[in-house]
Write the C-alpha coordinates for this entry.
Amino acid sequence: MGGPQESNEEDSVPELPEVETVVRQLAPCIEGRTVRRATLRARDLYRSGSLSLASVRASRVEGVERAGKAIVIRLGGGLPGVEMLVVHLGMTGRVVVPGATGGGMPVMEPAVAGSLPPFAGVAYGGRHRHGRIVFVGGPELWYVDPRRFGYLFVGPADGLRDRLHIGPDPFELTARAMSARLRGRKAPIKSLLLNQRVISGIGNIYADEILYHAGMHPLRSGASVERDTGILLRRARTVLRRAIQHRGTTLRDYRTPDGRRGSFQSCLLVYAREGERCRRCGARIRKIVVAGRGTHFCPGCQRAPRRARAR
DNA sequence: AGCTTCGCCTGCTTGC
DNA sequence: TGCAAGCAGGCGAAGC
Protein backbone atom coordinates (compact mmCIF):
# COMPACT_ATOMS: atom_id res chain seq x y z
CA MET A 1 0.00 0.00 0.00
CA GLY A 2 1.74 3.09 -1.18
CA GLY A 3 1.08 6.32 0.54
CA PRO A 4 -1.77 7.63 2.55
CA GLN A 5 -5.14 6.35 1.72
CA GLU A 6 -7.83 8.61 0.45
CA SER A 7 -10.33 7.55 3.06
CA ASN A 8 -13.98 8.31 2.76
CA GLU A 9 -14.13 11.11 5.26
CA GLU A 10 -17.18 11.05 7.42
CA ASP A 11 -18.75 14.28 8.39
CA SER A 12 -17.73 15.06 11.88
CA VAL A 13 -20.46 14.44 14.34
CA PRO A 14 -21.35 16.78 17.16
CA GLU A 15 -19.50 15.61 20.24
CA LEU A 16 -18.76 17.53 23.42
CA PRO A 17 -16.57 20.26 21.86
CA GLU A 18 -18.97 20.90 19.00
CA VAL A 19 -21.99 21.00 21.30
CA GLU A 20 -20.16 23.26 23.74
CA THR A 21 -19.44 25.61 20.85
CA VAL A 22 -23.07 25.63 19.84
CA VAL A 23 -24.20 26.29 23.41
CA ARG A 24 -21.83 29.22 23.83
CA GLN A 25 -23.04 30.79 20.62
CA LEU A 26 -26.68 30.08 21.21
CA ALA A 27 -26.86 31.40 24.77
CA PRO A 28 -26.49 35.13 24.09
CA CYS A 29 -29.02 34.84 21.27
CA ILE A 30 -31.93 33.41 23.17
CA GLU A 31 -31.33 33.88 26.89
CA GLY A 32 -34.04 36.05 28.40
CA ARG A 33 -36.23 35.62 25.35
CA THR A 34 -39.83 34.43 25.48
CA VAL A 35 -41.18 31.86 23.05
CA ARG A 36 -44.01 33.08 20.86
CA ARG A 37 -44.63 29.74 19.20
CA ALA A 38 -42.87 26.49 18.46
CA THR A 39 -43.59 23.66 16.05
CA LEU A 40 -42.07 20.30 15.29
CA ARG A 41 -43.12 18.59 12.11
CA ALA A 42 -41.96 15.06 12.72
CA ARG A 43 -43.41 13.33 15.71
CA ASP A 44 -40.79 10.62 15.72
CA LEU A 45 -38.10 13.12 16.63
CA TYR A 46 -39.46 13.36 20.16
CA ARG A 47 -37.67 11.38 22.81
CA SER A 48 -40.17 9.13 24.53
CA GLY A 49 -42.06 10.85 27.34
CA SER A 50 -41.60 14.27 25.84
CA LEU A 51 -44.29 16.90 25.86
CA SER A 52 -45.10 18.58 22.59
CA LEU A 53 -42.70 21.25 21.40
CA ALA A 54 -45.69 23.57 21.09
CA SER A 55 -45.98 23.43 24.87
CA VAL A 56 -42.90 25.62 25.31
CA ARG A 57 -45.00 28.57 24.15
CA ALA A 58 -44.84 31.54 26.53
CA SER A 59 -41.85 30.08 28.34
CA ARG A 60 -38.81 32.22 28.96
CA VAL A 61 -35.30 30.98 28.28
CA GLU A 62 -33.42 31.11 31.55
CA GLY A 63 -30.23 29.51 30.41
CA VAL A 64 -28.53 27.38 27.80
CA GLU A 65 -26.28 24.57 28.96
CA ARG A 66 -24.68 21.37 27.83
CA ALA A 67 -25.21 17.91 29.28
CA GLY A 68 -22.93 15.43 27.58
CA LYS A 69 -23.66 15.92 23.90
CA ALA A 70 -27.09 17.40 24.51
CA ILE A 71 -28.11 21.05 24.44
CA VAL A 72 -30.22 21.88 27.48
CA ILE A 73 -32.39 24.98 27.30
CA ARG A 74 -33.78 25.85 30.74
CA LEU A 75 -37.26 27.32 30.60
CA GLY A 76 -39.47 29.11 33.09
CA GLY A 77 -42.73 30.96 33.40
CA GLY A 78 -44.65 28.77 31.00
CA LEU A 79 -46.86 25.74 31.36
CA PRO A 80 -46.42 23.52 34.40
CA GLY A 81 -43.89 20.77 33.82
CA VAL A 82 -42.25 22.67 30.98
CA GLU A 83 -38.84 23.28 32.50
CA MET A 84 -36.41 21.99 29.92
CA LEU A 85 -36.06 21.77 26.20
CA VAL A 86 -33.33 19.31 25.33
CA VAL A 87 -31.96 19.16 21.81
CA HIS A 88 -29.72 16.26 20.89
CA LEU A 89 -28.11 16.70 17.50
CA GLY A 90 -27.52 13.01 16.86
CA MET A 91 -25.02 12.89 14.08
CA THR A 92 -26.33 15.37 11.54
CA GLY A 93 -28.51 17.68 13.59
CA ARG A 94 -27.90 21.42 13.65
CA VAL A 95 -29.45 24.43 15.25
CA VAL A 96 -29.65 27.48 13.06
CA VAL A 97 -30.48 31.00 14.13
CA PRO A 98 -31.24 32.84 10.91
CA GLY A 99 -31.21 36.58 10.95
CA ALA A 100 -30.09 36.89 14.54
CA THR A 101 -28.60 40.19 15.63
CA GLY A 102 -27.21 41.43 18.89
CA GLY A 103 -25.66 39.31 21.57
CA GLY A 104 -22.92 38.98 19.09
CA MET A 105 -22.92 35.38 18.20
CA PRO A 106 -24.92 33.40 15.70
CA VAL A 107 -25.46 36.11 13.16
CA MET A 108 -26.77 34.31 10.17
CA GLU A 109 -29.00 36.10 7.76
CA PRO A 110 -31.51 33.89 5.97
CA ALA A 111 -29.66 34.50 2.75
CA VAL A 112 -26.49 33.29 4.38
CA ALA A 113 -28.24 30.28 5.83
CA GLY A 114 -29.42 29.35 2.38
CA SER A 115 -26.03 29.74 0.80
CA LEU A 116 -23.97 27.97 3.39
CA PRO A 117 -22.22 24.88 2.22
CA PRO A 118 -24.74 22.09 2.26
CA PHE A 119 -24.69 19.87 5.28
CA ALA A 120 -24.37 16.17 4.52
CA GLY A 121 -25.20 17.20 1.00
CA VAL A 122 -28.35 19.03 1.98
CA ALA A 123 -29.00 22.74 2.19
CA TYR A 124 -30.67 24.31 5.17
CA GLY A 125 -34.40 24.55 5.34
CA GLY A 126 -36.51 22.51 3.03
CA ARG A 127 -37.75 19.16 4.15
CA HIS A 128 -35.00 18.71 6.70
CA ARG A 129 -36.00 21.71 8.75
CA HIS A 130 -38.08 19.82 11.26
CA GLY A 131 -38.43 22.26 14.12
CA ARG A 132 -38.95 25.97 14.45
CA ILE A 133 -39.10 28.18 17.51
CA VAL A 134 -40.07 31.82 17.16
CA PHE A 135 -39.21 34.22 19.99
CA VAL A 136 -41.14 37.34 20.89
CA GLY A 137 -39.42 40.25 19.22
CA GLY A 138 -36.39 38.11 18.64
CA PRO A 139 -34.77 35.50 16.49
CA GLU A 140 -35.97 32.19 15.27
CA LEU A 141 -34.31 28.92 16.05
CA TRP A 142 -34.44 26.16 13.49
CA TYR A 143 -33.79 22.50 14.09
CA VAL A 144 -32.40 20.86 10.98
CA ASP A 145 -31.51 17.18 10.79
CA PRO A 146 -31.21 15.37 7.45
CA ARG A 147 -30.51 11.98 8.92
CA ARG A 148 -32.92 12.32 11.81
CA PHE A 149 -30.74 10.68 14.40
CA GLY A 150 -31.24 13.50 16.85
CA TYR A 151 -34.09 14.04 19.27
CA LEU A 152 -35.96 16.68 21.22
CA PHE A 153 -37.29 16.41 24.71
CA VAL A 154 -39.60 18.81 26.54
CA GLY A 155 -40.37 18.17 30.18
CA PRO A 156 -39.51 18.65 33.84
CA ALA A 157 -35.96 19.25 34.98
CA ASP A 158 -36.10 16.64 37.69
CA GLY A 159 -34.05 13.54 36.89
CA LEU A 160 -33.34 14.77 33.42
CA ARG A 161 -29.93 13.19 33.00
CA ASP A 162 -31.10 9.81 34.25
CA ARG A 163 -34.07 9.93 31.98
CA LEU A 164 -31.90 10.75 28.97
CA HIS A 165 -29.11 8.37 30.04
CA ILE A 166 -26.48 11.07 30.24
CA GLY A 167 -23.70 10.29 32.68
CA PRO A 168 -21.07 12.72 33.93
CA ASP A 169 -18.67 14.16 31.37
CA PRO A 170 -14.86 14.21 31.76
CA PHE A 171 -14.95 17.66 33.34
CA GLU A 172 -17.47 16.52 35.94
CA LEU A 173 -15.74 13.28 36.91
CA THR A 174 -12.94 12.70 39.37
CA ALA A 175 -10.35 10.04 38.66
CA ARG A 176 -11.71 8.07 41.58
CA ALA A 177 -15.27 8.21 40.27
CA MET A 178 -14.16 7.18 36.84
CA SER A 179 -12.19 4.25 38.20
CA ALA A 180 -15.32 3.07 39.90
CA ARG A 181 -17.15 3.24 36.61
CA LEU A 182 -14.54 1.13 34.84
CA ARG A 183 -14.09 -1.40 37.64
CA GLY A 184 -14.71 -4.95 36.55
CA ARG A 185 -15.80 -3.96 33.07
CA LYS A 186 -14.67 -6.39 30.42
CA ALA A 187 -15.75 -4.32 27.44
CA PRO A 188 -13.01 -2.59 25.45
CA ILE A 189 -12.15 0.85 26.77
CA LYS A 190 -13.15 2.28 23.40
CA SER A 191 -16.70 0.95 23.86
CA LEU A 192 -16.89 2.31 27.39
CA LEU A 193 -15.74 5.77 26.30
CA LEU A 194 -18.55 5.76 23.75
CA ASN A 195 -21.12 4.65 26.33
CA GLN A 196 -22.84 7.85 27.39
CA ARG A 197 -24.10 6.38 30.64
CA VAL A 198 -20.55 5.56 31.69
CA ILE A 199 -19.01 8.84 30.58
CA SER A 200 -20.74 11.40 28.42
CA GLY A 201 -19.70 13.75 25.66
CA ILE A 202 -17.21 11.54 23.86
CA GLY A 203 -17.95 10.20 20.38
CA ASN A 204 -15.96 8.29 17.84
CA ILE A 205 -13.48 10.99 16.85
CA TYR A 206 -12.45 12.11 20.31
CA ALA A 207 -12.46 8.59 21.74
CA ASP A 208 -9.74 7.62 19.27
CA GLU A 209 -7.76 10.80 19.90
CA ILE A 210 -8.00 10.50 23.67
CA LEU A 211 -6.83 6.88 23.65
CA TYR A 212 -3.90 7.81 21.45
CA HIS A 213 -2.82 10.60 23.77
CA ALA A 214 -3.24 8.30 26.76
CA GLY A 215 -1.15 5.61 25.03
CA MET A 216 -3.91 3.06 25.49
CA HIS A 217 -4.92 0.44 22.98
CA PRO A 218 -8.65 0.65 22.19
CA LEU A 219 -9.14 -3.06 22.83
CA ARG A 220 -7.87 -2.98 26.40
CA SER A 221 -10.62 -3.82 28.83
CA GLY A 222 -12.09 -1.18 31.09
CA ALA A 223 -10.86 -3.14 34.09
CA SER A 224 -7.30 -3.13 32.77
CA VAL A 225 -7.11 0.65 32.54
CA GLU A 226 -8.80 1.24 35.87
CA ARG A 227 -5.48 1.93 37.56
CA ASP A 228 -4.52 4.46 34.90
CA THR A 229 -7.69 6.44 35.07
CA GLY A 230 -5.82 9.56 36.14
CA ILE A 231 -3.90 9.69 32.87
CA LEU A 232 -6.95 8.84 30.81
CA LEU A 233 -9.02 11.57 32.41
CA ARG A 234 -6.27 14.18 32.10
CA ARG A 235 -5.74 13.38 28.44
CA ALA A 236 -9.48 13.43 27.81
CA ARG A 237 -9.75 16.90 29.31
CA THR A 238 -6.76 18.18 27.40
CA VAL A 239 -8.02 16.91 24.06
CA LEU A 240 -11.55 18.18 24.64
CA ARG A 241 -10.40 21.56 25.92
CA ARG A 242 -8.18 22.07 22.91
CA ALA A 243 -10.99 21.01 20.60
CA ILE A 244 -13.32 23.54 22.22
CA GLN A 245 -10.69 26.23 21.64
CA HIS A 246 -10.74 25.19 17.98
CA ARG A 247 -14.54 25.31 17.90
CA GLY A 248 -14.62 21.60 17.20
CA THR A 249 -13.69 19.48 14.22
CA THR A 250 -14.80 20.08 10.66
CA LEU A 251 -13.87 17.23 8.38
CA ARG A 252 -16.33 18.15 5.75
CA ASP A 253 -19.61 19.86 6.48
CA TYR A 254 -19.87 20.66 10.16
CA ARG A 255 -20.37 24.34 10.86
CA THR A 256 -20.89 26.27 14.06
CA PRO A 257 -24.22 28.10 14.35
CA ASP A 258 -22.62 31.23 12.91
CA GLY A 259 -21.46 29.24 9.92
CA ARG A 260 -17.76 28.92 10.71
CA ARG A 261 -15.70 25.80 10.40
CA GLY A 262 -14.09 24.18 13.38
CA SER A 263 -10.35 23.73 13.10
CA PHE A 264 -9.46 20.82 15.34
CA GLN A 265 -9.15 18.53 12.32
CA SER A 266 -5.61 19.83 11.92
CA CYS A 267 -4.85 18.45 15.39
CA LEU A 268 -6.15 14.93 14.77
CA LEU A 269 -3.34 12.41 15.16
CA VAL A 270 -5.12 9.13 14.47
CA TYR A 271 -8.72 9.68 13.42
CA ALA A 272 -9.17 9.60 9.64
CA ARG A 273 -5.43 8.98 9.23
CA GLU A 274 -5.48 5.29 8.39
CA GLY A 275 -2.29 4.26 6.60
CA GLU A 276 -0.53 7.55 7.37
CA ARG A 277 2.47 7.70 9.63
CA CYS A 278 2.24 8.39 13.32
CA ARG A 279 3.72 11.83 13.99
CA ARG A 280 5.39 10.50 17.12
CA CYS A 281 6.82 7.10 16.20
CA GLY A 282 6.39 6.80 12.45
CA ALA A 283 4.34 3.61 12.53
CA ARG A 284 1.40 3.41 10.19
CA ILE A 285 -1.95 4.27 11.72
CA ARG A 286 -4.29 1.30 11.68
CA LYS A 287 -8.04 1.12 11.49
CA ILE A 288 -10.03 -1.68 13.07
CA VAL A 289 -13.64 -2.13 14.11
CA VAL A 290 -14.47 -2.01 17.81
CA ALA A 291 -18.04 -2.13 19.04
CA GLY A 292 -19.11 -1.69 15.45
CA ARG A 293 -17.27 1.59 15.10
CA GLY A 294 -14.29 2.46 12.96
CA THR A 295 -11.38 2.77 15.37
CA HIS A 296 -8.02 4.34 14.60
CA PHE A 297 -4.86 3.80 16.60
CA CYS A 298 -1.09 3.76 16.39
CA PRO A 299 0.30 0.24 16.86
CA GLY A 300 3.58 1.75 18.04
CA CYS A 301 2.27 4.13 20.66
CA GLN A 302 -0.73 2.10 21.81
CA ARG A 303 0.42 -1.40 22.65
CA ALA A 304 -2.09 -4.17 22.23
CA PRO A 305 -3.38 -6.12 25.18
CA ARG A 306 -1.96 -9.65 25.27
CA ARG A 307 -5.12 -11.23 24.00
CA ALA A 308 -5.30 -9.04 20.94
CA ARG A 309 -1.59 -8.95 20.24
CA ALA A 310 -1.65 -11.74 17.69
CA ARG A 311 -3.02 -9.52 14.98
C1' DA B 1 -26.19 -7.44 34.46
C1' DG B 2 -22.97 -6.71 30.95
C1' DC B 3 -21.79 -6.88 26.37
C1' DT B 4 -22.61 -7.24 21.32
C1' DT B 5 -25.35 -6.75 17.34
C1' DC B 6 -29.06 -4.78 14.82
C1' DG B 7 -31.81 -1.20 12.93
C1' DC B 8 -33.20 3.37 12.43
C1' DC B 9 -32.32 7.15 8.50
C1' DT B 10 -30.22 9.58 4.70
C1' DG B 11 -26.73 10.81 1.41
C1' DC B 12 -22.37 9.80 -0.50
C1' DT B 13 -19.27 6.38 -2.52
C1' DT B 14 -18.24 2.19 -4.70
C1' DG B 15 -18.96 -1.53 -7.88
C1' DC B 16 -21.16 -3.81 -11.53
C1' DT C 1 -24.96 6.18 -17.36
C1' DG C 2 -27.78 4.13 -13.90
C1' DC C 3 -28.84 1.61 -10.12
C1' DA C 4 -28.10 -1.20 -5.99
C1' DA C 5 -25.34 -2.21 -2.26
C1' DG C 6 -22.26 -0.66 1.22
C1' DC C 7 -20.94 2.54 4.58
C1' DA C 8 -21.03 6.04 8.34
C1' DG C 9 -22.62 6.98 13.02
C1' DG C 10 -25.50 7.95 18.15
C1' DC C 11 -28.16 5.36 20.54
C1' DG C 12 -32.04 2.41 22.01
C1' DA C 13 -33.82 -2.25 21.59
C1' DA C 14 -33.15 -6.86 21.12
C1' DG C 15 -30.40 -10.86 21.63
C1' DC C 16 -26.90 -13.70 23.88
Summary: The first strand of chain A starts at residue 35 and ends at 40. Residues 8, 10-11, 13, 48, 69, 88-92, 147, 149-151, 165, 194, 196, 203-204, 292-294 of chain A lie near DNA strand C (CB under 10 Å from a C1'). Chain A has eight helices and ten strands.
